[in-house]
Amino acid sequence: MIGAALIRRARGRSILFQVLAPSLILVVLSFLAMAGVTAWSRASGASEMFRRKVELSASLSRENVTAGVWMLDEAAVKAALVPILDDPDARLVLILDPQRKALLQTGDAALRDQALQALSHAPDGSSARHLRQSHYLVSVVPLIHEENDEARALGHMVIVYDTASVAAAAWSTALWVGGVAIVATALIVAVLVGLMRRIATPLDTLSTAMGALAVGRLDTPLSGLKRDDEIGDMARAVQVFKDNALRLRQAEHESARLEEERARADAANHAKGEFLAHMSHELRTPLNGVLTMAQLMAKSDLCPEQRAKLDVILLSGQDLLHVINDVLDFSKIEAGMLEIDDLEFDAAEVLESVVASFAAVAERKGVHLNLHVSPFARGARRGDPARLRQIVGNYVGNALKFTLEGGVDIHAEGLGPDGREGLRISVLDSGIGIEPESMARLFQRFSQVDASTTRKFGGTGLGLAICRELALHMGGEAWADSTPGVGSAFHVELPMAIIAAGDAGQDAASTAAAPVDRNLRVLAAEDNPTNQTVLRAIMDAFGADLTLASTGVEAVEAWRRADFDVILMDVHMPDMDGIQATREIRTAEAKAGLPPTPIIALTANAFHHQVAEYVAAGMDDHVSKPIDVQALSLAIARVLQPKSIEAAAYSA
């Protein structure tokens, strides 16, 4: 099983293979070396002992054999050879005379040639010589008789020993050492395999898991998390990586989901913007006819009863317009399309216009409406006067609605040194007041103090919520405090910085321009019959000569046929809209080298981006629907003023 695992992972060079293979090789080589050394040592020792035995036997038998040969006593010779013949390794004993004739031979006669050959190769001398031939050891012992200091050679004793016992001892030793080595190697391998499987198997599992995690399979389980060693630390580190990868994937999914929701929200906001544009146009168009005609009628000679009825129409129309504006403003805030102007204006004049617009309501209810402007609140400032008028108008309208006796006071103060840092405007009433538990809901959308308030006094519940949103968009804040049965105070602080006297001019001058007092030739492009009637009535009041066109195409053709002082251009028309018609006129003027005819956009769509589109198309100004007669008069004066200046310069 381990061998198969090694073969499978040999190419991959797993840790088990890298550690176990060298260890096995080292162990095997070590035991082979030990077995070889041991076997060689045992064989050398056995060979040495065998040689010593041979030398000892030759030494012990030499004297007795020499004496027997000298005395020609065969029995004595045989008796002397008994210790040698008793040795199982001695295979042949041969006694030769000096002429090498055999005197005595005992043992294996087949070895006689071995003995004689060894004798012929043995050097002469008195010492015994031991010669190895194949696996035999031949001992050649000279027989010398010494007497009266005279030595006489009697021949030789040749003994042939078989060395098979030495080889057998060496092989026995080698086999024993080899067996021990095999057993020891097996034990060591078993221990190594056990240890390595405890180490390599978890590492292999972690490696496989990390490979799976790397390709995104984050559901891969991990093992070894409870171990207290380095593998456990590694497993826990991989678990942290896995957890982080899971969190990252969840974050990516959440980001993708949020991006998808953002895209849907953008699409919804775009659709809401389109809806606002159409709703603004569709709601304001009929109101244009009601309010504008009512304004024109108010300039006529009417009996008191008729004027009273007309005032009701104007007041109701203004209330309806106020509700529509609140709903549209709320929708613009929700769609992120709320727009804030940065114009030069006089705060006192804005507040006075608010008081003037609500004076009739206060008079009808029999309550006072007073304005108190501190010196530090006066002077030219920068900001959005329309939004300031909207906030204060909402405050005053609510105050008058809930005040049955007493009155309403408007206080304007400057913020910072000499009032230069901004405005604080407070509207105080002596109305019914608000309970403390209801104050938290006061600036919430579609919220009234209670249901009975809505039934008794009416309202959408959007006014104060819009006031707070407007204040926040202008960098300020709005709040209120109240005492039930005593009255309420509504406050707003806005960072509308005061402007030095030398910096004033352009904005205020442009809004204060007066209409040009002359018979105007006006071209009006308007597809709605009611609005056509309204425009005709307004132009009659101005004493202007009006030409009507129902489409953009008709407007361009009418412009080609006659000269006009000013063009009033509706934006939404069939066949060709007002923007395209304006581009056609401007292109034709440029080609013919004609001075541009002033064009004023008449539309219910008056968002900043829409006005910017009108200007980019070549329009000079715009007036929102429902048309305010005075606003239209001022717009005409503004676009005609450059012509008056040019004419004066030309005549001079």
Under CATH, the topology of the largest domain can be stated as Heat Shock Protein 90
Helical percentage: 55-70%
The fourth-level CATH homologous superfamily of the largest domain is Histidine kinase-like ATPase, C-terminal domain
Number of helix segments? 18
Number of strands: 17
CATH architecture annotation of the largest domain? 2-Layer Sandwich
Strands of the widest sheet, in order across it, are 2-1-5-4-3
CATH top level class name of the largest domain: Alpha Beta
Can you summarize this structure?
The chain is built from 18 helices and 17 strands. By secondary structure, the chain is α/β, with parallel strands linked by helices.
Describe the protein.
- The structure is a single chain.
- The protein has 652 residues and is an alpha/beta fold.
- The chain has 3 domains: 155 residues, Profilin-like, CATH 3.40.1840.10; 168 residues, Histidine kinase-like ATPase, C-terminal domain (Heat Shock Protein 90, 2-Layer Sandwich), CATH 3.30.565.10; 138 residues, Response regulator (Rossmann fold), CATH 3.40.50.2300.
- Helix content is 57%, strand content 17%.
- It has 18 helices and 17 strands.
- Strand 15, helix 16 and strand 16 form a beta-alpha-beta unit.
How do the helices and strands line up, and which of them pair or pack?
Layout: H1 2-9, H2 15-70, H3 74-85, E1 90-96, E2 102-107, H4 112-121, E3 129-133, E4 136-147, E5 150-162, H5 164-214, H6 230-298, H7 304-334, E6 343-346, H8 347-365, E7 368-373, E8 380-383, H9 385-402, E9 407-415, E10 422-429, H10 436-439, H11 451-457, H12 463-473, E11 477-483, E12 487-494, H13 506-511, E13 521-525, H14 529-542, E14 545-549, H15 552-561, E15 566-570, H16 578-592, E16 599-603, H17 608-617, E17 621-624, H18 629-651
Parallel strand pairs: 7-9, 13-14, 13-15, 15-16, 16-17
Antiparallel strand pairs: 1-2, 1-5, 3-4, 4-5, 6-8, 9-10, 10-12, 11-12
